[in-house]
């Protein structure tokens, strides 16, 4: 399996170079290069085949081919063929050379798109003679650089023949038997050269489980290693002080907040470092939970740090936490890129001497000269906005501090146990009492003038409004309203009665901060913006939002945007301007008007669009599976997670020979190295 592909007959240097471009270097790589789909080439009755569906038929050529040319290299060859009881026209584009091969009376098999009205099949592939057994399901590989499907299939056939009888199966017999999974050799045949649909189905089922189990074993091994190393700081907080602080908060904690606070406090006392993700919808009270955990840490004699992605968000956190914590003697500081040099120097000195209990800041917290006397808890807000390396640097400012990641993006449990498998996950799934739901409406773009009129009434009452657009400038390819045009249109509509601001991603960060600050302080009545307002700022006076071309956003993003309003005491509204062309698009708009529950919407978004909207970047930690799909194969994912937990906890997994391939896989992945565990 480790031999280079050139060890196979028929693969020379040039072919090996083409395969290397696909990430294939060894014979093992080649046999594990799975197709991304299988073409269904089973013969179908044309009477039951829908219009424009891909179809494979077998029949007899009934006419001499006729060829028509249009232009230098463009041709259309057509024949009549009898397929069952249907006499149809088969059209071949740019294949005039077949004129002398297709003769009346011969049997051929063709695949192509079926034009039901004209009784024509536009041929994409054909072969002489009837269809052979074993050709019902044809694998299709993701190729580039001039590689052909048939060539790759030939190489894979040679590779499978070469390793036949010498294929160690990473899955032990116990698991194969438990889930009635095919062995490795049978499953590889099923992926590459299936006998029928059942063969493909069972082969795929086996590799889906194998991929999920491998990933979950790594995650569970990280958890086990972290606990066994004993790395972490035991924080023995003052329970009486903590209760007094909770009683002083200007609201009653929700049941969900109490549950999560108990989870966090229990972990702070453990000698093992906390590594937890806190999910909570907009307005669910994550900041209060963070404040309680930070105060507990401080009463234990340690320091806390909270890192936010923008200066404005850091400032808002600092103001809120100061109101709650300073009456209890907590010494706080705000550290950001705009902190003056002298003030920064004083803050750093006090941090190092332990005279500051809590520092709140932006990326400025991870600068090399920032040092703590005893860092006990690190909280990263909107953690997906920071890279893995940035989060790691902040963690290393202390000796194994507890770590809490917070996100307001509701991540379905389906993805949370996959992407954050080595973390513990806490969820705030209950909203504080008295929080008003945002009324959401979906209307066509032609109703825009009426929507502006409604927005004007809110502005006259002293409220503020957001208008969100998907693009910055005009695009010939996308018929969407851009932010610049929208800004001008709204300014003209209100004729100077209200101040309108514009913000987008191409503004200098300082200019973005300035515009956002002016809006949050009430200097701007309307903020026209792209999605850069998605995360963070708290403007309680904003009660109206228009999202233009809303069909271009996923549900998770629409919900995040909507969460910018409804933060104060005033009734709030969100209007979706959208003309969706698809049923899925209409379903998304309808879902937004029916619920304010971010987790329900996240599950719906996952169902409609897949996981790409949640984790678009490699740094997110979303694993790259070859076969498995965390959304559609969720049951297998959950099964693999439970199996992995049991295996990692058992003595036999670490000692018995049958588990050696799985142990080797964990060791080779590097997840148990000290660097990874930290």
TrEMBL record:
EC number of this enzyme: 5.6.2.4
Enzyme class: isomerase
Residue ranges occupied by any Helicase C-terminal domain in the UniProt entry: 451-607
InterPro entries assigned to the protein according to its UniProt record, in alphabetical order: ATP-dep_DNA_helicase_RecG, DEAD/DEAH_box_helicase_dom, Helicase_ATP-bd, Helicase_C-like, NA-bd_OB-fold, P-loop_NTPase, RecG/Mfd, RecG_dom3_C
GO molecular function: DNA helicase activity; hydrolase activity
Lineage: superkingdom: Bacteria
Keyword Transferase among UniProt keywords: no
Catalyzed reaction equations: Couples ATP hydrolysis with the unwinding of duplex DNA by translocating in the 3'-5' direction; ATP + H2O = ADP + phosphate + H(+)
Pfam families: DEAD (PF00270), Helicase_C (PF00271), RecG_dom3_C (PF19833), RecG_wedge (PF17191)
Keywords: ATP-binding, DNA damage, DNA recombination, DNA repair, DNA-binding, Helicase, Hydrolase, Isomerase, Nucleotide-binding
Domain Helicase ATP-binding: from-to ranges: 267-428
PANTHER family referenced in this protein's UniProt entry, alphabetically: ATP-DEPENDENT DNA HELICASE HOMOLOG RECG, CHLOROPLASTIC
Family, similarity comment: Belongs to the helicase family. RecG subfamily.
Purpose: Plays a critical role in recombination and DNA repair. Helps process Holliday junction intermediates to mature products by catalyzing branch migration. Has replication fork regression activity, unwinds stalled or blocked replication forks to make a HJ that can be resolved. Has a DNA unwinding activity characteristic of a DNA helicase with 3'-5' polarity.
Protein name in UniProt: ATP-dependent DNA helicase RecG
